[in-house]
Amino acid sequence: MSLEVSNLDVHYGRTRALRGVSLAVAPGEAVGVIGETGSGKSTLARAIVGLVRPSAGRIVVDGEEVSAYNARQWRALRRRGTVQYVFQDPLRSLDPDLSVEESIVEPLLIRGGSRREAAERARALLARVHLDEALLARLPGELSGGQRQRVTVARALVTDPRVIILDEPVSALDAANRVRALEFFKELRDGGTALVFISHDLGSVAGVADRIAVLYQGEIVEDGPARTVVNAPRHAYTRLLVGSAPTLRSAAAARSSRADRAERAALRELLQTIGGQAS
Ligand SMILES: Nc1ncnc2c1ncn2[C@@H]1O[C@H](COP(=O)(O)OP(=O)(O)OP(=O)(O)O)[C@@H](O)[C@H]1O
């Protein structure tokens, strides 16, 4: 397993934000963690990258029990970049004063790589996320939202992480960019990276997640193959999520003649990947 979380509890003072959470993600597997606001999604992600300390339970990354690490070991692990956390807001993870190239190469330079090698790697990574090299000289403020998100992903990839946690990876993207992003995440997953998608919207990650875990009030109430969770949810809360998922629900609206063709094609593709039907 690339990531194994077992019986994790996290407290903030007297608030118990996570209760006995267990989640395993294999290399080349994509798991969606879905839950409403306050359900504990960010807390889980933050615990996995060592930003909050669990009060009980274990976290094992690539065979190492990181939940037992001290601050120095965490710093070393972060420098290696074995686990990467891509924040929901790309502007939060990109320094506004650094060019795209500088942002991408920074983690490599911190690890002691040469500037020349780092620049070559930045070019290769930009191509990997399907962005033009002409963007290397731009500042984050000079990019579109979709381009910025791809730059943050390129930056996360620079350390060849075993696990990438993506917070709301497609929620802010339009239909065409969403489909492109999902295709790219599939390529990453197929290359052996373990992916964890965090979202409040089941529909937005159902097309790429192999498995979906539903987090409700700090507990995982359902965990199963994405198709099963979407088509035959067992828990009442999951049924509510399926019913209210904007992307899944809007599939019906997209069938109407008013819906624009690109949106309809994107939705069809999304639904096909999870075994649904769109005409
Ligand atoms: N630093 C903190 N101090 C105290 N309580 C916190 C802190 N961070 C989160 N919480 C509480 O822990 C619970 C889980 O919060 P968390 O941010 O993990 O939820 P979330 O599912 O990520 O929500 P959202 O989708 O709104 O980001 C909530 O009740 C929240 O109020």
From TrEMBL:
Molecular function per GO: ATP binding
Keyword ATP-binding: yes
Keywords assigned: ATP-binding, Nucleotide-binding, Transport
InterPro entries (UniProt xref): AAA+_ATPase, ABC_transp_ATP-bind, ABC_transporter-like_ATP-bd, ABC_transporter-like_CS, P-loop_NTPase
Domain ABC transporter, residue spans: 3-242
Keyword NADP: no
Pfam families the UniProt entry points to: ABC_tran
Assigned protein family: Belongs to the ABC transporter superfamily.
Protein name stated in the entry: ABC transporter ATP-binding protein
Organism lineage: Bacteria, Bacillati, Actinomycetota, Actinomycetes, Micromonosporales
